[in-house]
Amino acid sequence: MTSVATPETTLGASTAEVCIAACADTYRDSGEILAHAVGIIPALGARLAKLTTAPEIVLSDGEAFFLSDPPMPGDPAAAAPAIEGWAPFRRVFDIVATGRRQSMMGASQIDRFGNQNISLIGDWARPTRQLIGVRGAPGNTANHRVDYWVARHSTRVFVEAVDMVSGVGNDRAREAGLPHHHLGVIVTNLAVLGYGADGIVTVLSVHPGVDPQTVTDSTGFALDATDAPLTRTPDAEELRLIREVLDPRGTRSREVAD
User: Fold this and answer.
1) Sign, Cα dihedral of 107, 110, 116, 122
2) Can you give the pLDDT at residue 9?
């Protein structure tokens, strides 16, 4: 089966806009949590969710202040978001430890169980590439829901085994008995991936216009996308918010180009 986009089904949505809507959908049932989104597409997804399906989520300015609304550069009549709270860096760890946070992180490597690597490429003793280190990945994956955003779905990212574990996958979480471990979805420029009952990555949907075989061929472990449905496309109001209110300058195309 080949997933083919049509103007009627996509409302003219770009791949970036489909990805933003998919990121927004991760917050539908989250309730009052602090949304942590790394990257342009994830950040726009969190802001879209705040304006539509998840008004209870809390957004920050990226540093210490909690905002009443997302920044809306395309709406000159909109007031600047009010500051409703303050959480210095030391307080963030309390929020993480109590599970009142949801992260969408990036990944340099992900394996079939959702183990994530953002630390290094190659052998630990002599890596060929030094990356950013584990950052908050261990604490995030041990304490609250974590989703991943991959702008370029490829066999370099989706690998049989990660070179180092930064974010804990489903297999290691079960072995360690982590009660609050929760991997959500992986949104990529080709598809939305999830996890089966066995904790292994599976295909939830393929983006409009993407051949399912491309998803399979772009993954470094077995992944069958044959019968996957199409990823939903943003409706007319969501497209208006993305294009006119949240991202009138089109920064979304910097991460995903059609």
Assistant:
1) negative
2) 40
pLDDT tens column, 92-107: 889 999 999 999 999 9
pTM value?
0.92
The tokens for 209 are 């216009």
CA pair distance 70, 224, nearest whole angstrom: 37
Inform me whether the pLDDT recorded for 4 exceeds 90.
no
| pLDDT per position as a tens digit, 112-157 | 999 999 999 999 899 999 999 999 999 999 999 999 999 999 999 9
Pairing mode of beta strands 191-195, 201-206: antiparallel
Residue pair 221/114 in contact (Cβ under 8 Å)? The answer is no
Which residues, including other chains, have CB under 8 Å from residue 82's CB and lie 6 or more apart? Answer: 67, 68, 69
pLDDT at 80 over 90: no
CA distance 110 to 64: 30
DSSP string, 116-141: EE-SEEEETTEEEEE-S-STTHHHHH
- Asked whether 39 and 256 are in contact (CB, 8 A), the reply is no
Give me 201's structure tokens: 């990555």
How far, in Å, CA of 2 to CA of 33, rounded? 37
Query: What does each C-alpha distance from 22 to 6, 48, 144, 186, 215 come to in angstroms?
Result: 18, 10, 19, 10, 17
Structure tokens at 8: 């009627």
How many angstroms separate the Cα of 247 from the Cα of each of 23, 34, 43? 15, 22, 11
